[in-house]
Known about the structure:
Blueprint: H1 27-34, H2 37-48, E1 52-62, E2 65-72, E3 80-87, E4 95-103, E5 140-142, H3 150-159, E6 165-167, H4 169-182, H5 188-191, E7 203-205, E8 214-217, E9 227-229, H6 265-280, H7 283-293
Amino acid sequence: MGRVNTEVGTDQESGSVGGGQASDFDDTLRERLASGADVARAAVEEFATDGVGEHLGCVVDAPFTTTHRFASDLAGYRGWYWACVLALVPGGDLTVDEISLLPGADAVVAPEWVPWEKRIRRGDLGAGDLLPPAEDDDRLVPGQMLSGDEELDDLAGPVGLGRPQHLSLEGRSAAAARWAAERGPDSEIARGAKFHCGSCGFLVPVAGSLGSMFGVCANEYSADGQVVHLQYGCGAHSDVQVSVDPAIPAPVAYDDDAVDVVVLPQQLAASARARSGAENDDPGSAGTDSAATD
């Protein structure tokens, strides 16, 4: 099979065909282009050798051109289709402009390419791995520069931390955006919480300007060791109490040993019939009654 062009698109700008774009493009030319499915198939089969399926229809991309589409039967190209662009001018013959193999709506395509330096995700760093920052990392500024965080800048002077680099304003803003997205006021658990972390006894304050928005949770049953927004919240707040309503009456105790015997009318009638039947079946009882009567 020849080299397959998988470029998405054609050398014609896709768009609707208006009367002002090409006054000579009439219904006759449109019909001739639409009826050129056999010409398009022959061109695709000559180019691809195999893997050309059923005709899927055609569409007018621009004046004097029409794209015929054929299903792809190539292995590994499920959902793709062959596109053959035919051109026609008044007084001319059908010509083949371009043949392409394009992905359809259900096609299996490669994921969007990501540069190597941007492929590392949170949690990828393991023991022994080295991950140096980029030379132009805007999250960091040289240690001799002010970070813009007055509290941290004052701390760095007398203590003499001597860090060659520290967080820039961009670095702090990026961290705040990540933390707020994961454990911020808009999370589902925070919207359902009655109290917020800013008033929780389990919150460990954070130094610097970020401390006005965030702290670290020290509750082992909640977000233990995680940075949380002060407007974040959960059901393990230090002020949460379970209310007990004393107005709820205690359940009535019943004596399980007490049994009430209830005789139903049906049972009484059945007992009477049983006694009557027993008397009729005893002849001695009947003779005694007769002698007594005499």
